[in-house]
Amino acid sequence: MKKVLSLLLTLMLLMGLATTAAAEATELTIWSPLTGAKADTFDKLITAFNESQSDVHVTHVSQGSYSILRQKMAGAFNAGNMPQMLVCDYIDVPLFAQRGMLVDMTEVLDQTTLDDFFSGMMVDLTINGTVYAVPYNRTTQGFIVNKDLLKEAGIDRVAASWEEYYEDAKKFKDAMGEGYYYGFAYFNQYIYDAIAASFGVKMLDENGNVNLINEDMKEMFSFFQKMYEEDLLVMVPTLSGSFAEQFSPFLEKKVATVFQSSSFVSSARTILDCDWGFEYMPSGKAGYAVTIGGTNVAVSSTANEAERKAAQAFLEYLNAPESGATVFMEASQLPVRKATLELDSVKDFCAENPWTENLLAQIDHAVVANPITKNIGDVYSLTNDMIVRIIYNGEDMDEVLGEFTETFQETIDSARENDEYVE
User: Fold this and answer.
1) What's the mean pLDDT in 5-28?
2) Residue 19 domain-assigned?
3) CA distance 403 to 417
4) Are residues 296 and 286 in the same domain?
5) What is the CA angle 374-197-185, rounded to 5?
6) pTM higher than 0.90, yes or no?
7) ∠ CA 44-50-54, rounded to 5°
């Protein structure tokens, strides 16, 4: 009987120790804008991390969109109850950093790990020499091409420059006739940034003031105005929704090419029933240019020492080459670390999926986001409005550009006055 009691006491003691250990696990909450397949992949990685150890437990709370995340973070910051970690857009990192909402990532990850991230993805995450986030779910711009439709029109190339883009658009219209378009102009702020960079557009003058009424900007808008007026591209000002909802003319095979973020490649892989490709954005007088958008992971400034240590463990798991391979191959997001490309599984995947070649090669053409993008909080909606008014509505270009120059300048001036301006 004594032996039985001793055994029971030992078991109870062990169970108590286990319960204590479990209770001592550091809890981390991470907010994100992720939904759909991206959220599923993220949750899958979090579950695997939680099951791999007992020291840290991560809970993911999706806010449903970038805009809602921004609103929630602003409120949480003011209330002093931010989550310990967050997944945020590349254009939000500078603003959050300037407001003191994020910690220096060199306090969380070692320099060897930080140096393994692609440099083109770090430019917008580094503010005044300090790294405030690391890449996770990154994308670039390009245009998705229906190669079967081009062949039907007698076009055997993919336009490499804006001059070729216009030439091929004319040829396509002549061959296919009414109701067919070479391009689908889904212009949002993200696509606009890459196109503007290729045209050599500068948003600020030599004195650091906003100046949208410049020759490069007018040349760019005139180019697309002309194409729209000549019925060479169709433009539907749809700013949200799935790939199918945004690009129905493309899916109906009435349009040969469409500008888009690489984040939609995963949709293209499942719903396109043609020979398609993800191609370089055409080059302009400034050459090829893309910005690297998408989400990044950061640690909030309110996280205590134990939570920062726990965040380090999670980030090391999340950014391991194998985890990056999962995000790349399942969600078609860019690999964020060089080591990921050395994995045999990734090499095999790239060999089987030719669209990955351009996707990866464009990383070399990454440029830093322009000052407007980095300093205007609602730049997405404002830029979309500007584009629609000039190209789709046909409003006077100088008047619209002048109006938005004043709007953007007011915000830039305010940021400078409050010492929140991001170079």
Assistant:
1) 60
2) no
3) 22
4) no
5) 100
6) no
7) 170
Query: Quick one: tokens of 138?
Result: 């990154």
Q: Residues 227-269: pLDDT tens digits?
A: 999 999 887 665 556 666 667 788 889 999 998 888 888 888 8
Do 312 and 199 belong together in one domain? no
Beta partners for 300?
102
Question: How sure is the predictor about 420, in pLDDT bands with cuts at 50, 70 and 90?
Answer: confident
**Closest to 49 measured CA to CA, from 8, 96, 85, 92:** 85
Task: Please count the CA atoms within 13 angstroms of the CA of 71 that sit on its side-chain side.
Answer: 7
Total structural domains within the chain: 2
- Phi, psi angles (nearest 5°) of residue 11: -60, -40
Amino acid making up residue 202: K
| Phi, psi at 400, each rounded to 5° | -65, -45
SS3 assignment, position 33: coil
Q: 128 and 71 in one domain? A: yes
Q: What is the pLDDT of residues 319-378, one digit of tens each?
A: 999 999 999 998 888 999 999 999 999 999 999 999 999 989 988 888 888 888 878 878
Question: Residues 291, 189: contact at Cβ < 8 Å?
Answer: no
How far apart CA 262 and CA 265 sit, in angstroms, is 5
Q: Are 128 and 423 in contact (CB under 8 A)?
A: yes
**58 within domain boundaries:** yes
**pLDDT given for residue 16 in this prediction:** 55
Determine, yes or no, domain membership for 359. no
Do 88 and 157 lie in a common domain? no
* Poorest-pLDDT segment among 43-47, 54-58, 201-205, 400-404: 201-205
Domain residue limits at 228: 141-290+366-417
CA distance 230 to 225: 9
Percent of the chain at pLDDT exceeding 90: 60
Q: Where are the beta strands (DSSP E) in 125-167?
A: 126-127, 130-131, 134-139, 141-146
Q: From residue 77, give the alpha-carbon distance in Å to each of 69, 72, 111, 112, 159.
A: 12, 8, 28, 31, 47
What radius of gyration, in Å, describes the C-alpha atoms of the chain? 24
What would the pLDDT profile of 108-145 be if each residue is shown by its tens digit? 999 999 999 998 889 889 988 999 999 998 988 888 99
Indicate whether 285 and 405 sit together in one domain.
Answer: yes
Read off the tokens for 342. 């050395």
